Each structure stands twice: as C-alpha cells, then as structure tokens.
User: What shape does this take?
Amino acid sequence: MSDALVQRWDGFLKTIVDRFQQIMQESRDGCAGLLADSDYDTIPMSNAWGAMERRAKELGTKVDETWRGQVEPKFDEAGVPKPIIDQQCAKGEQLRDWMEAEIERTGIQIFCDAAREIAKRVAAEKVEGFPCKQCGSPLAVPITFRTVNLPCPHCRTTNEYEPGTRVRMMEASCTHALCQESAWNEWLAMRNAENAWRRSRAHTIEHLKAWEAAQIAYHRAYLTKRLQFLPDQAPSFDKDLKGRMEHFYVYTVNNDAVWIKAGRPRAAL
Assistant: This one.
C-alpha cells in the first residue's frame, strides 16, 4: 500500500516539475520577445514576468496544499511508519526549495539579459563607437544606467558618457538584477542558512549567527557590485549595509528567545 502511495506522490511531483519548467521556459522566451517587440521598453516585459512568477509560485503552494490536505492523510490512514512519511514530506520541501531558487534565478536572468541586449543595441546604434573627445581613440563603454566619466587610456582625457533616456529608465530593475546575479552564490548561502534555522527542531545561536553571517556576505557582495553601476553610492556603502542588516535585526531576530538569551550579539560590520 505504501509503495503505491509513494508512486502516486512521485507522479504528482513530476507533473509539477514538468509544468514548472514549462512556465520558466515560456517566461524566458516570452519576455525576450516582448522586449524586442516593445522597442526595448522593459515595462511590458516586467508585467509579463510578474504574471508568470505568480503562476510558478502557485505551483509551490499546490505542492504544500496537496501534501497536507490529501497525501499525508492517506499515508496516516495506511499506517505508514513515520520515518517514511517524513521522507516523503521532505521530497515536497526539497521541490519547493528548488522551485523558489529557480524562480529567483530566472527573474534575474530575464532582466540581466535585457540589460545586455539593450547595451548591445546602444552600441550598435553608435556605429562610430564612442571616441575620446581629445584624441579620437575608441573608449570601452561599460553597462551603465547613468552618466559616467570615462578616462581615455591614451591621452588621459576625461570623457562624459550619457547612456540616453531609454537606458536610464532601466536603472532600477536591471541594476538590481545585475547585482543579484553577481551575488548569486551568497544569496543561495543566505537562503540555505535561513532554511536551516527555520527547519531546525532546536534553534541555536549557532543557527542565527550562521544566518547573520550569510546575510552580511550577501548584502556586501550586492552593494559592492552596485558600485560598478552607481559609483556615486560609494560614500553611503557602510550606511546602506547597516540599513539592510537593521531589517534583519529588528524584524527577524530581535524578539527571538535564543537571540535574546545570547545577549543579541550583533556582528561587527
């Protein structure tokens, strides 16, 4: 009886995976098409991704609801040993974890691809390149959403580069995605640390300190990458890092009994 239940559960999870992957592929293809069709306006693409993201997240909710409402009761009725039930429950948790990470990764990919496509289009439109105003040497223009000063490597003249209105409009969404892409490994580590704390049967200060350290590493990596696109933010780097961590301290651990017992031991930033 338990083998049949396991097979049905596995079949359901496979159906969810197949549908999820289809939504993610449709998202990547559809958003790329919308970007081109809208003359590289990111608003239609953003709206489309928002709708696809909701559909994908609903699948994760469906996994949880199906387990709690239908599958787990069947295992209980059949008298399946608890270790087996826990093992099957873990399959659903692992799938939801994977789906959540894939949704995040796909969203980042969509907006990073958009940033790079628009950068290529801008470069193609400037067929003459961007020459130094003093000596005429071609200058390498980075992906940027604001006016930047480019020093000429030959004559050392400072040249002001203006990316244009269309590119400027992408600053918020695409800068965020490019920073997330750069800090992806740190984001995964932060998320894993959070899950380890939330799913631990006995919360310890070690769980919280590991989560705190992962938070700091992620925000530091994110803000460091942001300086490439928004160099004027350099003076506020430390303040921004503290501000981001303050949210963690105030809204996540401030009233946690383990954190309080340990004396609320904040790490030095």
Q: What stands out?
A: Residues 82-125 form the longest helix (44 residues). The mean pLDDT is 92.
